[in-house]
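Morning - magnesium ion inputs below, output right after.
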Amino acid sequence: MFLTNTNIVTDALLGVAVGDALGVPAEFVSRELRDERPVVDMRAYGTHNQPAGTWSDDTSLTLCLADMLCGSFSLEALAGNFINWQQHGLFTARGHVFDIGIATSQAIHRLRTGTPPTLAGGADEYSNGNGSLMRILPLVFYTRQMTIEERFRYTRNVSSLTHRHIRSVIACFIYLEYARLLLDGVEKHAALHQLQDSLPAFLITCEGVTEEELNRFHRILALRVGRYDPSPPLAQLPRGEIYSDGYVLHTLEASLWCLLNTATYAEAVLTAVNMGSDTDTTAAVTGGLAGILYGANSIPPEWLAVLARRSYIEELAGRMYTAVSKL
Ligand SMILES: [Mg+2]
């Protein structure tokens, strides 16, 4: 499949992969250093010493989910893909794993030793890194016709393989609900307003969602917390108040902020990378949304030209598109 014949799954998967690959050479570099020497193009080597266009665990685990969704929905099959990725280098850019989060590594160990998928992820408050958010996007194509209750249940189950604390689940759910509105053609600012109007009342009815937990998302959902006024709209917050570390809430906030404050795919993902710190994941999460919003045809061709396994990603996206089109 070539880009002249692109589809919405290709838009999302290439969006994730290109953002991830832009961020890989710059991972863990501080924002201060990044400001002195911004990333403007696909670089080679750097943090993980990989050739230009090499994507990381974010994309690998996203492809694991996309692959599972080509067949019958199965959390066991998804767990099998995760294990094959970590153990045998399947779904990697260049045959080996060079980047894996601690929570994901521990969860895959539990999956390998027989823990059921929905119980494999860490459940404590400190297990809220961005490791399930970064890989969840393909699920939107499978769940978009379902009821909101079903969409939440599927999101919880897919997140739980590696991250089952309710905060990670809510973050994944908000991300997918936002992507779903973009797929429906809703304008990007209006989409966030729709979520602010509809999601809090639903989420508070979900098992495990407390008011305190929901309030963690007050900057995204424009919630009034206690006697304080709501924060300014997320898009209007200064860059200095947006964090780009590996905490799931920060990654979701930063990605929405990058998307809302830019006008092209390239601008959105470069803004994410140049926030520093967890650059590959912030850019992958941003890139998935930007891919859907602007289309894969808007990704700079020179970036796609060096993207590792581009034709495999496009072929997988084509298969998944065919599968979800039958739903
Ligand atoms: Mg990574």
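Note: The first helix runs from residue 8 to 23.

O.
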